[in-house]
Each structure stands twice: as C-alpha cells, then as structure tokens.
Amino acid sequence: MCGGFGTRLRNVIGATQKAVAAIDGKPFLHFVLDQLYQAGCDELVLCTHYQSEQVEEALAAFNGQAPGQALVIREEQPLGTGGAILNALAVSGYRGDFIALNADTYVSARAYELALQTPAPALVVTEVGDCSRYGAVRLDGASHVLEMTEKGITGPGNISLGIYRLHTDDLAEFPNQVCSMEKDILPALIQARKLKAVRYTGPFIDIGTPESLDEIKKIGLWDNK
C-alpha cells in the first residue's frame, strides 16, 4: 500500500509520495521491493492514489532489477487501508493466500519471510519500549490477538508492523468499499478469534515522521539490506 498523503512529512518532502522519498539518491520504495523479492515474493501489487505517477515512475526505474512482476492499481479516490486491499483483490481477481503491507516501513526481508511462513490470518508484531506512537497489540499465551489499542498508551509492548498474512476467504464478508484495515477488518477477525501474531526481532523504522526519516538517512540503508 503506497497511496497515503504523508501529511506529517509534507514540510520535509513537499508533494512527494512518502513511499518514494529519496534515501541516498534512491526511492525508499526500491528498498521495500528489494526486500520483498529477497523474501520470495515474485508477484506484487502496488495500491496507489496520491502521486500515483511518482510510484509508477519509481517502479519503472526498478523493473530492470526485479526478478518478478508488479502491477499498479490506481485508486480514483482514497479507499483506506482495508479498501485498498479489497479493491486490489477485486481488480486482479486473485484468490488464495497473500501478504499485505505498508510501503513506508523499514524492516528486513525476515519480516516478510515470517509473514509468508505463517498461516492466515495473522499479523507481524515486534516489541518496543514505548507503544505510544503506534498503539499496542495485546496477545494471549498462544499468540492470538486479543486487542489492538489506540495510539497514546505508554509503556513497553508489542506493536503491529502493518504486515498482514491473509487469505481471500478471510475477507469474503467485507464489501469492496472504503474501509480501514485497523478499524474495520482486523477488529472483526479479532472478535472471531481468528487473528494470530508472529513475532519479528530485527530492524524497524516507520518513516512517517521527519524524525524517523532523518534516522533512515543516517543508517546506510543500501549498505544494510
């Protein structure tokens, strides 16, 4: 998913789509694509809206390096994180297991490998010292997701990385319309006690704020794949 407006970064990247923000002269999206291909994904769908043409240009520049194929699905209006996935499935006609993710998060290929290896429906979590920026994911002893709290609750805990392992059957009850993965789809799966979590330990940065974007630029992204 790479269609968001990136409002928190507007004073830093201007009208640039945050998924293609330049890191050491390359679009951040190139790093995400590279990690997905390393994890074994060979068919990708990019859900776009805001500055879709920038994403399409970045993909075209990457295509010569890519061992798989990628399809761009441009939303005429923003559909939300859940609606983007439902629309992509409707447009592509795909049926079966897949992973979905936000294209503005720095993780290693291992996070995507874990998602691919985990039965659907599931989400990838990591433990942090303070959940306040992200919202916490509360689990039981069998790693079933019991609750996903709103942002602002302080203290250590597990957070969602925005990487989901799903099957089209899990989404059959949701109409193809504007909706939120976090507020609509995941709560329904939690209520049905279907959603489990897989734990990831490794590098993680959400590039959605000026501070985290600066952090990405300091770590030598292309030297630490």
Q: Explain this structure to me?
A:
With 225 residues, the protein is of the alpha+beta class. The protein has a single domain (7-203), classed as Spore Coat Polysaccharide Biosynthesis Protein SpsA, Chain A (Alpha-Beta Complex), CATH 3.90.550.10. 31% of the residues lie in helices and 25% in strands. It has helices at 10-13, 28-39, 52-62, 80-92, 109-117, 181-191, 210-218, and strands at residues 22-23, 26-27, 43-48, 69-74, 97-101, 105-107, 122-128, 137-139, 145-148, 157-167, 196-199, 204-206. The strands form five sheets. A four-stranded mixed sheet has the order 5-10-7-11, covered by helices on one side. Strands 1-2 form a two-stranded antiparallel ribbon. The radius of gyration is 17 Å and the shape is globular. It starts with 9 loop residues before the first helix and ends in a 7-residue tail after the last helix. The model has no long low-confidence stretch (mean pLDDT 91).
Gist?
The protein is of the alpha+beta class and 225 residues long. 31% of the residues lie in helices and 25% in strands. The two termini are 21 Å apart.
Helix content range: 25-40%
The N- to C-terminal Cα distance equals: 21 Å
> Taking strands numbered 1, 2, ... along the chain, how are they ordered across the largest sheet?
5-10-7-11
The biggest sheet, with number of strands, parallel, antiparallel or mixed sense and barrel status, is:
4 strands, mixed
Task: Let me know the CATH homologous superfamily.
Answer: Spore Coat Polysaccharide Biosynthesis Protein SpsA, Chain A
Helix count from the secondary structure assignment = 7
* CATH level 3 topology: Spore Coat Polysaccharide Biosynthesis Protein SpsA, Chain A
